[in-house]
Amino acid sequence: MEDKALLEQILKSNLLPLAFIGDSVHTLFVRRYVLSTQPSKMDSYNGRASKFCKASTQARVLKEITPLLSEDECEIVRRARNAKPKHSAKNASYADYLYATAFEALIGYLYLKGDKDRLEQILNLSVTL
User: What is the pLDDT along the chain (129 residues), one digit of tens a residue?
Assistant: First the structure.
């Protein structure tokens, strides 16, 4: 299935699959970023990467970038934040988990939409804010 067709299908229902995709895209971006910033030991890479990928950090980033989002992006964030996930993060508040899920859904949306420039912009903000 093409990315755009998959996106159309997801947008018709629950947006949590966007967060599933977005989590992977964000994690890969963060790992590449950590590897490129300075050589280190493996355990140091994991520790540095996890700082960017934890729910509280993703929630903070989303709150900071919200004024920069388009109407469509805000709608994706709102719908994903209001989705009812069956799980929650072990080390985060429920509110942070919902915002982190919305952040990941935004990343998944931009990825499947094929908006590489906007995706890159948001991903770069996620490691620099």
Answer: 688 888 988 988 889 999 999 999 999 999 999 988 876 666 677 778 888 999 999 999 999 999 999 999 999 999 999 987 767 667 778 889 999 999 999 999 999 999 999 999 999 999 998
The radius of gyration of the chain from alpha carbons, rounded to an integer in Å, stands at 14
The distance of Cα 126 from the centroid of its chain, to the nearest Å, equals 9
Do 80 and 106 contact (CB within 8 A), yes or no?
yes
Domains in the chain, CATH or no CATH each = 3-128 (1.10.1520.10)
Q: How far apart are CA 62 and CA 99, in angstroms?
A: 7
- The answer to whether the CB of 58 falls within 8 A of the CB of 103 is yes
Active-site residues, by number, are 23
Taking the C-alpha atoms of residue 102 and residue 32, their distance in angstroms, rounded to an integer, is 22
Which pTM value belongs to this model?
0.91
